[in-house]
Amino acid sequence: MTIDNSKQLFERANKFIPGGVNSPVRAFKAVGGDPIFIKSAKGAYLFDEDKNQYIELINSWGPMILGHAHPEIEEAIKGSLSASFSFGAPTRKEVEMAELIASMMPSIEKVRMVNSGTEATMSAVRLARGFTGRDKIIKFEGCYHGHGDSFLIAAGSGVATMGSPDSPGVTQGVANDTLTAPFNDLEKTQELVANNKNQIAAIILEPVVGNMGCVLPNEGFLAGLRKLCDDNGIILIFDEVMTGFRLAKGGAQEVFNIKPDLTTLGKIIGGGMPVGAYGGRADIMDFVSPSGPVYQAGTLSGNPIAMTAGLTMLRYLNEHPEVYTELDRITKKLCAGFANNLKELDLNYTINRIGSMCSLFFTDVKVTNFEEAKTSDTALFGRYFKGMLENGVYLAPSQYETLFISTAITDTIADEIIAANKKVLKSLI
Ligand code: HOZ
After folding, report:
1. What CATH class is the domain 71-319?
2. What does the mean pLDDT of the chain come to?
3. Domain extent listing, the chain
């Protein structure tokens, strides 16, 4: 396999783009080697600038639930193009999108569209602060909520990968207002609330974490947080940028049957186009300008092309609930295949999975928080990643990310992935 064209592009990119990439994880720093430059994708496959083909297991970090360039979404986007690309004025599609989101995720009574998950989480926290009149928030170690200043404290995803979970540039004042607890540690969270009585505006978390690898909530953790928030007038924010409409029609909150006050959504509701949204209880959302005093705005918010792509995908998911059963089945099969291979080769491993999200950690420790995720052998993961890439499987280039499976992965493709996994693992021992 040659990657000469990717290498050349990376050299050019490094001259004009910091680190040669527009988002750090994709630079492959955590796994070594040069990044692959993608030219196109269709269904279950990515194609690079050197004409190599890879089975796709990231799917743009989640949104390509139906695989790449799904024909219905492609047609809808094409059909929308001749009506122009941006108005900065209200459209019918925004109304339809708000109605559809509210019907699929009933905790959302009102919703505001923005342009990314980062914008959604920043806006939701500002709203929680404005609504409660309090400054502090609680987040969980290893959870990542985009690159807003308040969240770059003990953060996961790229910041964990690059080893700078507390980014320089975040003022001490902002950092002081972000309190952190280990994920799944209800007692520590209760302590933080007790020690900061009437000062906590919001508790924000990924109900299923995707940004320290895939980590599930322990039994009772989400319900405990719901009660803690109710008892103390705190806004509970679920960051469902990765899980919303992926784990179920109604996201993780449907799976675990917990109703947050606010929810943040991202790329999934744009079918992969740049979109985000935050929504929830009407009394809180009515605090957003122009109905309320908390300001938030954006020319591109509710962009018609992005709305078209997102609406088409969400409608498809709404009308085809069998998608979720199939995603669960095929991902379970993949993980069982990996587990068999690892057992046969006597390697330490933990596999976390829920629905179509999963992670393989090279550790025998049960992974329920960031400290446990960090026991994984990341050097071994780097070699595993490289081997899989050379064998035509594109994994997330960091231990602290999750795999996202699409409906384009058939049984035959799953068997190929499991066979590649076996071959690569064998070569590592
Ligand atoms: N932080 C993103 C996933 N958790 C990665 C985004 C990207 O590199 O495109």
Report:
1. alpha beta
2. 96
3. 4-57+321-428, 71-319
